[in-house]
């Protein structure tokens, strides 16, 4: 069955870095556009970064541009989110999404930025 499993979240101090991973199975990974979303307490889920299935360029929300980098490894069926210069405002549950004609979501991983 389709699975997207995020990992790499945790507690980090302001200014620190984390690398999230999302391992996929059960579908043809390379054909899907991939993205990361996040949802902070009391807020709606928001798009933060995306990478197309083939070619094209990545895109980012203004709030993370220049600090976060999305990448994909089709050989490993994994999408990554490198997060640098983290601030408390980045605290949220982070989700990966795979999309083509259907969309699949992971279960999320908590990122907490606090001193």
In a nutshell, what does this entry contain?
It contains no helices and 11 strands.
Describe the overall structure.
- Helices cover 0% and strands 51% of the residues.
- The protein has no helices and 11 strands.
- It has strands at residues 3-7, 10-12, 18-25, 33-39, 46-51, 59-60, 68-73, 78-83, 92-99, 103-105, 109-113.
- The strands form 2 sheets. Strands 2, 4, 5, 6, 9, 10 and 11 form a 7-stranded mixed β-sheet that branches. Strands 1-3-8-7 form a 4-stranded antiparallel β-sheet, with no helix packed on it.
Helix content: under 10%
Mean pLDDT: 96
Number of helices: 0
Strand content: over 45%
Profile the largest sheet.
7 strands, mixed
Order of helices and strands: EEEEEEEEEEE
Q: Unreliable segments (pLDDT under 50, ≥5 consecutive)?
A: none
Gross morphology is globular
Class per helix and strand makeup: mainly beta
N- to C-terminal distance? 40 Å
The Cα radius of gyration reads 13 Å
* DSSP strand tally: 11
Keyword list:
115 residues; mainly beta; 4-stranded antiparallel β-sheet
Please specify the SSE layout and strand pairing:
Layout: E1 3-7, E2 10-12, E3 18-25, E4 33-39, E5 46-51, E6 59-60, E7 68-73, E8 78-83, E9 92-99, E10 103-105, E11 109-113
Parallel strand pairs: 2-11
Antiparallel strand pairs: 1-3, 3-8, 4-5, 4-9, 5-6, 7-8, 9-10, 9-11
């Amino acid at each position: 069955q389709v699975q997207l499993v995020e990992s790499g979240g945790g507690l980090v101090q302001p200014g620190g870095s984390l690398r999230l991973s999302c391992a996929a199975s059960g579908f043809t990974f390379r054909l899907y556009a991939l993205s990361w979303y996040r949802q902070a307490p009391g807020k709606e889920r928001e798009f933060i970064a995306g990478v197309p299935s083939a070619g094209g360029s990545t895109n980012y929300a203004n709030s993370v541009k220049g600090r976060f980098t999305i990448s994909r490894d089709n050989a490993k069926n994994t999408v990554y989110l490198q997060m640098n210069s983290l601030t408390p405002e980045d605290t949220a549950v982070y989700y990966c999404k795979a999309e083509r004609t259907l969309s699949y979501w992971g279960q999320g991983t908590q990122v907490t930025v606090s001193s």
